[in-house]
């Protein structure tokens, strides 16, 4: 296999550095695709077939999405997690939520303030 070397020096005198860089990138990509390191479908620009999801299975949401749905900050969600106000799943260093569980837990354990609903101060 022939090795392509790219100069790390400034521009060429005639100003064609961008064209030469693009050509080098095209050669590297072509060599990569010819080595069959990428599946044929991806090499041709076709995306793999999507995996069918069961619509009855609820997906997890991230902390920032939970905060957005609650109308609070991410820091508030952290506090709610510490206090046990909302249920969550810890996956390594990642935290995930199921919105239906969060919503059901809040409805079951906390009351709605009628004062706030009537617009009273």
Describe the protein's topology.
Layout: H1 17-34, H2 40-43, H3 63-70, H4 74-83, E1 89-91, E2 94-96, H5 99-109, H6 114-118
Overview of the structural elements:
This protein is mainly alpha-helical. The chain folds into two domains: 48 residues, no CATH class; 56 residues, no CATH class. Helix content is 46%, strand content 5%. It has six helices and two strands, in the order ααααββαα. A two-stranded antiparallel ribbon has the order 1-2. Strand 1 and strand 2 form a beta hairpin. The longest helix has 18 residues. The model has no long low-confidence stretch (mean pLDDT 75).
Supply the helix-strand structural class: mainly alpha
The general outline is elongated
SSE topology string: HHHHEEHH
Computed Rg: 27 Å
**Please, what is the average pLDDT?**
75
The number of helical runs is 6
Largest pleated sheet:
2 strands, antiparallel
Helical proportion?
A: 40-55%
Q: Provide the low-confidence segments as ranges.
A: none
Alpha-carbon distance between the two ends: 77 Å
Beta strand %:
under 5%
How are the strands ordered across the major sheet? 1-2
Query: What's the number of extended β-strand segments?
Result: 2
Number of domains: 2
